[in-house]
Amino acid sequence: MKVKITLNGKLLNKHIPNDMMLLDFVRKYGALSVKRGCDTSNCGLCTVWVEGTPVLSCSYPAARADGRSVTTLEGVRQEAEAFGRFLAAQGAEQCGFCSPGFIMTVLAMRRELKDPTEEQIARYLAGNLCRCSGYTGQLRAIQAWLREGQQAGEVQA
């Protein structure tokens, strides 16, 4: 099967197996930040954006992304690095294994939700598992990061 997928701004016109998952496609073409964790859509490690919406690429057929734009951490590198530094400065750093999927979800949430409550943040992040924390530090850091962005006058999509 032939697909045209724009990966991080680059149009890829490729032949793929019919059963290829988006996770395998993006990794094959250089997006190594996307990780395989559970293969059951339960951990969030494989989170990417399709047309700006977070999806779990381990259970998303690559053929379904035909004609669409897919963004990985590599495609939002500056924003992701800025948020990663902010997490570390807040004392909410992690081992890093779940960070790419977690960061992709947080960046999508920032674009989608205006001034989310703690409950909304927790619900949005529910599919991202971190095996080394209790999420308290991350939640605190996310709330501070969102406040900082609003105070700076950022426009959210």
What does this structure look like?
- It comes from Candidatus Anaerotruncus excrementipullorum.
- Keywords: 2Fe-2S, Iron, Iron-sulfur, Metal-binding.
- GO terms for molecular function: 2 iron, 2 sulfur cluster binding; metal ion binding; oxidoreductase activity.
- This is 2Fe-2S iron-sulfur cluster binding domain-containing protein.
- Residues 1-76 form the 2Fe-2S ferredoxin-type domain.
- By secondary structure, the protein is α+β, with helices and mostly antiparallel strands.
- The protein has five helices and five strands; from the N terminus they run E-E-H-E-E-E-H-H-H-H.
- It has helices at residues 22-28, 77-89, 99-112, 118-124, 136-151, and strands at residues 2-7, 10-15, 47-50, 53-56, 69-71.
- It has a five-stranded mixed β-sheet with strand order 2-1-5-3-4, covered by helices on one side.
- The longest helix has 16 residues, at 136-151.
- It is elongated and about 45 Å long.
- The protein starts with a strand and ends in a 6-residue tail after the last helix.
- 31% of the residues are buried.
- The mean pLDDT is 90.
